[in-house]
Structures are given as C-alpha cells and as structure tokens.
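Narrative of activities, Objective 1.

The group set out to show that a structural description can be obtained from nothing but a protein's sequence at a throughput compatible with the screening campaign. Below is one input-output pair from the validation batch, recorded exactly as produced.
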Amino acid sequence: MRRLDLKRFLRRLSSSIGISLFLALVMIGVAWAVEVTVDTFDFGSQSLTANGGNPTVYGVASGAGILGGEREVQVEHLGGSGDVAVNIDQGNSDRLEFTQAAGVTARATLRWDGSGDSAAQLNFGLGGIDLFSESNDGFHVSIVAAPQPINVTFRVFSSSTNWSEYTLVIPGGISPGDYVDYLIPFAGPYDVFTQGQGASSEADFGNVAAIEVLIDGTLSAGADLSIAVIESCDRRDYADLPNTYHTILVSNGPRHVPFGLRLGANLDSEFNGAPSANADGDDTTDIGDEDGIQATGNWNDGSGEVTAVVSGLVTGRVACLSAWIDISGSAINFDSADQVVDRVVVNPGVNPLTFTLPMNVAQNTTLNARFRLFPDSDQDGSCSDEPAIGSTGEIFNGEVEDYVFEFTPTAVILTSVSARSASSIWNIQFPALLGLYAIAALFLFRYIQEAEI
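Output recorded for this entry:
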C-alpha cells in the first residue's frame, strides 16, 4: 500500500481546483462584472411637487444605493394648470416617478455630485468615480412606465469645464407594468455621448466628479416617466436556447445592446445567456420578455406562420427581422438552411409573416427557433440593403428571442414560462459551481484509490 502524501495531495488538489475554477469562470462569462450603481431609488425617499404658485422646488436625500451617498432633485413647473411631482421610494414603488397633470409641461433635474449641499447648485465632489470599472460600457436604465414621448438627458462631468452628454428620446408606448431596459453606451463602438455644449472637452468616464439627469417633460404635455434603476454596467439582451445553438457569451451567443427597439412589450438585459431546454431560462430568472412572437397555423402545409409584435420605433420608422428554425432537429447551431426569414421589413405593431417550410415538418414534434429584431440603420424603409446578420454575435439595438414550438395534431403550442426571480445569473453560476465541486470530489476519490494500491 502506498502512503498518502498529504502535501502532494494538496498540491494536486489545488491545481485541479484552480483549473476547474478557471473553467467555471469561463462558463459564467461576465456574470461577476462589477456594476457601479448610480441610484436604485429604493433608499432616500423624496416627494416634491411644483405648480404655478410654487414653480421651482428643491430636495436633498441620502441613503444606501445612491452614488456619493446623496441625491439632489430640482423640479420646475413650466406651464399649464396643475401639478408636476417627483416621487422617489414612495410606498412600495422602489422607483423614481415623474408625473405631470394633463396639459402641464415641466422638467426635473437629478444630481449625484457627492456634495450634500443645496440641490440648486451643481458641485463636483464624487472624487473620481470610475464608471468603466471592469468592462462597463454604458448606463443601464430600466424604464417601467413612459406612455407618451419624453426626453431624458444624461450628463457626466469630470470637472466644471469637462463634461459629456446624451439625450435619450423615449418614443412612448411603455405602459405601467411593462419593463424596458436601455443600455446607453459611453464606451466602445456604440458610444453615443458627445462633448457637452459649452464644455472645453469631453468627460473622462474613468474619473467622474458628478452625474446629472434631466427629465424633459415639454415634449408631450402631461407625459409621465418611471425609472427603476440607473447603473453603469455591460448588460446585453441574450438568448436562452441550449448552448448547442451558441447561446452564451463565450460561444459568441446572440446579444443586443438594448436601446428601446423590441419584440413585444418587454425587454430585459442580462450579463450572459441563460441556456435551457425550453428556451425559458431568461424568463424564469428575470423579466419574462419573450412576448413578441406568436406561432399560428399547423405548419404542415409547406408554410409557417407567425405574428411579430414590434415596439419602440419612432413614428415613421421601420425595423428588420431575421429568423432561424432548426428544421432538421439537429440541435447543433443554426445554419443557412435553417434561416426562414432574412431581413424582412416590420412595422410598429402586429406583423403577420409567412415563410416556406418542408411539407409535414411539424408533425407531432417540437421545433427550436430564434428571432432577431434589429434597426433599419440608414432609415430608408428597406432592410434588403442592411448587412446580413447571423444567429450569433452582437448587434446594437433590437432584441433576440428564442422559442420552442410544440406541435400537436391540432395546434401549435409555445413552450414558455414567464416569472421573476431575485437572481438573473444563478442558473448559470450554479451548474458551473456544481461542476467545480464534482471535479474536486472525483479527484479526491481517485487519489485515495491510488494511495491504497
């Protein structure tokens, strides 16, 4: 019998665990990216109301979940009869709510400047916050209500003379109860920020002294807005079919920078794909946003039919749609033979689509599908001149939705579950960590066996 050498065993075990941990981290991709929270709006309650008799009001609040520890708010009533109000963390809302009475125009300014003094003055006391952190490249903003068009301007200051800004145009159509994520890029190929008007130079997003958000309610009298969170991160909208279809980041899975254009009413974002057998991994771990495609007909007569609901388009614009269906059932990625829709023009609202399929392809079976919505980049109303996209890779704006269509002799059933959970990445982390522990346990068992020979 060979004596068990404890030092040798621990060296080999640590090496094995190190390799396993590396592989586990690769599997979960950027799931541990470091977010920089600007405001979660669930601390520092505020309720401010302005009107014709009191046209400008100010307020300061402090608390956890607020960048720099304090938030300054200025509310201005600009016209109309009635009130404009800003409510933050009131009741169970955990959000910022900007509301205008019918016919009222107003604006609100929120500042995070680390000063703790009057909300009437912008200071520069954040002390050089690094918004880039690990791989962060934009402001993640969750909009939970914007029924009418409204503009939101983001300003980032490195000093009193150096700042950058971008105005987000929200076209409306986000009803209370909906959930739409935006990622407003400040780095990389999609950077939308420009030098602020009157600034000497652009801001350094790695050395931030103050952040300002201006809600402009003058675009539509009576327009309201509700925001759930503002943070710096690198979230994307990902897919959720099994990873044999290239779903997660390390497989170059399909992902979209969320920027308002979407299938259905909702659009959430994640740090990685969420592979699952029923293509519901995204829905069961966060917001159920696979709500834009509905299969119709029996698909056995040589054609397939779906309706695609498109939201988030500015009036007069169109978008483009491509789709893939695993007709052969290979479950090994999508290839050119699987593409059934290629850069088809879709309009705001409901779009019926028909495409060619083999006869009887859907006879008592299930078919896996992937749909990708993306912008008409040159805004000419045509998609045929847009670059062809694949079932993988990154696109600015739009959304990817994966589906499993289950066909019975009489109907088509969409396999999907819509729910919410506190964690949007645990379904990826947990299997990876289980694999790590399993490898370590197997190594221990094998080593003890060898030692006893």
